[in-house]
Amino acid sequence: MKYRNYILVAAMMLVATVAEAAKTVSSTALKLVADGQTVNTPAIQRAIDDLSRKGGGTIVFEPGNYVIGTLELRSNIELHLKSGATLLGSTNPYDYIDITKEGADRSDPKKWNYLSLALIEAYQAKNIKLTGEGTIDARGCEVALAIDSLHKAGVRPDPNYFDRLNRPREAMRPNLFTINACEGIEVSGLHLRNGACWGLVFFQCKNLLIERVDVLNRAYWNNDGIDIVDCQHVIIRDSHVNAADDGICLKSDKLELACDDIQVYNCAVESSASAIKFGTNSAGGFKNITIRDIKVSDTFRSAIAIEAVDGGEVRNVLVENIHALNTGNPIFIRLGKRQADRRDGIVDGVTIRNMVCEVPFERPDVGYKLRGPITNTMRNPMPSSIVGIPGVKVRNVLIDNVTIIYPGGADKGLRYLTMGELSKIPEQINRYPEFDMFGELPCYGFYVRHADGVTFRNVNLLLRNDDFRPAFVLDDASNVKFENITYPFGKKNGQIYDNSKQ
Fold it and tell me: In CATH, which superfamily holds the domain spanning 24-223?
């Protein structure tokens, strides 16, 4: 009897093993053509659909170049790319389709948005994975130029075409990934390249792991690296992002939702905009966020930008262990109100600690193919900013153990704003937030306006060249504390100007 049981168990294990093996399908078995020219979308999509109907499985891509248009991942599906395997985005714009199924009329491009098109898409799927050591290259520049040509020929007009800059808007250009309303997602080990628009977009997803990925998304304008929109329970770790726009960006589109329980750590970021950004879309807000062990370099705007300008709440945010080199601005915290009929936003409870940042005098993106946006450069070097709006203050911010090397070199002949002219600094309540949005500022270190409960502790400020401005300017700022501040050599007196006490 004992031996019969052993045989039965062994047979069951064999059946289970065979069943498991049957769930793994290779590109060879699917007879995919890896010549870099043949479009393989129909065959791959059929395999995805068939595996998903049978409970799920894995498609393994052997080395080679597989051209694809939009692929829709379904529940319990893994795409695994071996080293040397590359999924190449088709350069034909008609190979990209929308699968969001949200009821909008997709025949009308006016109703398209940033979720409409992507190379890899998923909608309301569970347990999906993109893994391996291979590459997904969307060939975004070629795709964007083809879209532009179709518009100019009148074949496929872009109703929102950017005439001033002579290029198609974001909604017409496919992202690299758009993962929408999904749960249980893993993206690991891959080299991800060249979207025509944003890179990895995750919208209203839960339980997301991104690890050991290398994201290079500099093929075209507005190309973010990773966008996390109203997601919960997210880990991004051990990754590298180089983006033509924001590097790792948290967004919130819905008033009733938020980004919640997000961890980003041990990553390196280069950006022609901001490296780590909360916003700009910030309707619901950002809660319980940890950003740690980040290396930032060659970044045009801010190393850390935290923006609440659409009525959202920013609470319980920890940013620590940041090392930023050749970065245009260290810290930008902004509470604004872009829409007058929205509720007031909240920024309450932000800690930034253990940070070193070096700011150059010149633009930090000199030599980049796609440089940061044109700005009013006729100004002196900008400080970090913590700024609310009249009647709505940024609250409870701790800046602790932070060293910033500013360029100095401010010149009164270029711009000169006296302390008696602080009221001339525009509020810009409803403007798009950026670190240089206020124009010339009267300090080199930190500009604090409409804030309550800001603490500067163990802050070390250095200057490469002399600067006639004070280190800190406070305007309508209450309960601001300074603990163990180190100023540049020779500067001690008059380094804090508090207009709130004038």
Answer: Single-stranded right-handed beta-helix, Pectin lyase-like (2.160.20.10)
Are 223 and 245 a contacting pair, CB within 8 Å? yes
| 399 bridge partner residues | 352, 456
Closest to 408 in 3D by CA, of 465, 475, 367: 465
User: What are 357's two structure tokens?
Assistant: 């940042």
Higher-pLDDT residue of 367 and 282 is 282
- The reported pTM is 0.93
Residue 298 backbone phi and psi in degrees, to 5: 50, 50
Report d(CA 209, CA 200) in Å as an integer.
Answer: 12
Report the run of H or E that residue 6 belongs to, with start and end.
Answer: helix 2-22
Q: Three-state SS for 371? A: coil
3-state secondary structure of 475: strand
Q: Tens digits of per-residue pLDDT, 144-158?
A: 999 999 999 999 999
Contact predicate 409/465, CB 8 Å: yes
Inter-CA distances, 101 with 115, 202, 283, 313, 394, Å: 11, 16, 23, 30, 39
Instruction: Measure the CA–CA gap between 176 and 427, rounded to whole angstroms.
Output: 37
How buried is residue 152: exposed, middle or buried, by Cβ count under 10 Å (0-12/13-18/19+)?
middle
Contacts of 106 (CB under 8 A, 6+ apart): 98, 112, 116
d(CA 238, CA 294): 10
Coil, strand or helix at 410: coil
3-class secondary structure per residue, 178-195: EEECCEEEEEECCEEECC
Residue with tokens 């990895």: 200
E-state strands within 90-239: 118-123, 126-132, 135-137, 175-180, 183-188, 191-193, 200-203, 206-211, 214-217, 226-229, 232-237
Tell me which residue of 460, 480, 482 sits closest to 354, measured CA to CA.
Answer: 460
The answer to whether 198 and 172 are in contact (CB under 8 A) is no
- Per-residue pLDDT for 360 more than 60? yes
The torsion angle over the Cα atoms of residues 192, 196, 198 and 199, rounded to 10 degrees, is -10
Please tell me the distance from the alpha carbon of residue 142 to that of residue 148, in angstroms, as a whole number.
10
Q: How many CB atoms lie within 10 A of CB 12?
A: 10
Q: Where are the domains of the chain?
A: 24-223, 271-363+382-409+423-502
pLDDT of 7 higher than 70 = no
- For residue 17, name the pLDDT band (cuts at 50, 70, 90): very low
Q: Judge whether 422 and 441 are in contact, CB under 8 Å.
A: no
Two structure tokens written together for 437 = 């949005």
Phi-psi region of 101 (alpha: psi -120 to 50; beta: other; left: phi over 0): left
- Respond yes or no on whether the N-terminal peptide bond of residue 135 is cis (omega within 30° of 0): no
From CA 357, how far away is CA 81, in angstroms rounded? 37
Identity of the amino acid at 482: F
